Amino acid sequence: MRRQSVALLIETSNGYCRGLLEGVIAYTKEHGNWSVHLTEQERGASPPAWLSKWEGDGIIARIETDGIARQLQALRVPIVDLSAARYIKGVPWADTEDRAIAKLAVDHFVERGFRQVAYCGDAGFEWSRKRGDHFQRLAEAAGCEVHQFESVGRYDASYDINVEQSKIVRWLKKLPRPVAIMGCYDFKAQQVLDACRHLEIAVPAEVAVIGVDDDRLICELCEPSLSSVMPDTRRTGYEAAVLLSRMMSGEHVATEQPMLTQPLGVKVRESTDTLAIDDKEIANALQYIRRNATANIRVADVLHNIELSRRALEHRFKKLLGRTPHEEIQRVRVNRIKVLLSETDLTIHQIANRTGFEYDEYMTAAFKRETGITPTQFRDSSSSL
User: Fold this and answer.
1) What InterPro entries does the record point to (predicted)?
2) DSSP 3-state of 322
3) Mean pLDDT for the chain?
4) What does each C-alpha distance from 297 to 139, 303, 320, 332 come to in angstroms?
5) By CB atoms within 10 Å of each CB, which of 92, 115, 125, 176 scores lowest?
């Protein structure tokens, strides 16, 4: 059987598209009859020089400019589009389901007690507007008051990151608190977190923030780490490859409705690991604990940073969170241990040092008390998933 030549015009610069590529790779490994042409691509880039002379059998592309669209149409080969922009009508397209993504974010906020919620979008993307509309309707149906902000498109000629950041800062100042904010994608959510840091707003106690795409490089570099809705981009890429294969075999494929994949869930990190709390002193205490729990702090250290007596702190903490300040310190430390066990190759001794335990045995005892298993058992179970 002749190997079919397939070009991939998918950027490699973000987690969403890397997931799409992983899906295409999975298909090619299963079927083994494609010769794939992939070059480094940036979002919104001009058509690559090789495209006009390319002779192949089919293309999977994120078509997000008129220039790319015109060149692809001129090639007269089967095309599957992975963009919601729809620059070429009449070709099949695959995407992630925006309503389901918005619903996961709304449900995540409502479960944590938020009744003031907000959406921060990007005017340059059609999918951002769709997500914002779905977020508005779903949040209002859940009894929430909704606030919206839309920045100039990131790839618009007039876009200035400093100007847009200043706008987000001004918007945040006007929002009621506590409030939970959905960024249309991880980059936008990162901008919201940066604005919170500029305003010295406690995250997540006063403002909780969630993104979309679970781009690990962005999410883990954020301070605090960013929770994110996880689209099943691998599945989307795989199904796009199936569609293209069918088209290259001469099969007619419907183009009226997109092939949509459902998101996988929410990856919870520090930016939404909270309950809605309308108590500034307790919010400040929570922020101090989350920033310093791994430094072996005690409740007395928390009290030095807020204007409450120990009795008032204990009472209000228990009333609002259902646990004591000491239990919260231990919970944050154990969660940090879990991350280091599952996402690094650090030794138990190194993890103990990084989470404020003088001896490995103390960490093991504290971890087992909270989880019922030892750190080693937790690491073994995580590696098998």
Assistant:
1) Homeodomain-like_sf, HTH_AraC, LacI/GalR-like_sensor, Peripla_BP_I, XylR_PBP1
2) coil
3) 90
4) 38, 11, 21, 11
5) 176
Domain 98-232+266-272 has CATH 3.90.550.10: no
DSSP bridge partners of 200: none
Domain 280-383 sits in CATH 1.10.10.60 = yes
- pLDDT band (50, 70, 90) for residue 162: very high
Q: How many helices (H) and strands (E) does the chain have?
A: 15, 12
pLDDT at 347: 94
pLDDT score, position 362: 94
Residues in contact with 210: Cβ distance below 8 Å, sequence separation at least 6, in sequence order: 105, 108, 109, 180, 181, 182, 183, 189, 226, 227, 228, 229, 266, 271, 272
Size (the chain), residues: 385
Same fold across 4-95+233-261 and 98-232+266-272:
yes
* Contact present, 95 and 258 (Cβ < 8 Å): yes
Give the residue among 236, 233, 185, 240 at the shortest CA–CA distance from 210: 185
Where would I find the H helices in 175-232? 186-199, 216-221
pLDDT at 339 over 60: yes
Classify residue 294 by its DSSP letter.
Answer: G
At residue 313, φ and ψ (nearest 5 deg) are: -60, -50
Residue 383 is predicted with a pLDDT of 65
Q: Which residues are CB-contacts of 225 (< 8 A; sequence separation ≥ 6)?
A: 219, 269, 270, 271
User: Which homologous superfamily is 4-95+233-261 in?
Assistant: Response regulator (3.40.50.2300)
Q: Which amino acid is at 323?
A: R
Residue 22: pLDDT over 70:
yes
Handedness of CA 87, 93, 95, 98 (dihedral sign): positive
- Rounded distance, CA 274 to CA 270, Å? 8
- Long-range contacts, 312-316 (Cβ 8 Å, 24+): 313/281, 313/282, 313/285, 316/279, 316/281, 316/282
Contact indicator for 281, 308 with CB cutoff of 8 Å:
yes
List pLDDT tens digits, range 123-134: 988 899 999 999
Q: Given the structure tokens 């998918």, which residue do they identify?
A: 10
Phi-psi region of 348 (alpha: psi -120 to 50; beta: other; left: phi over 0): alpha
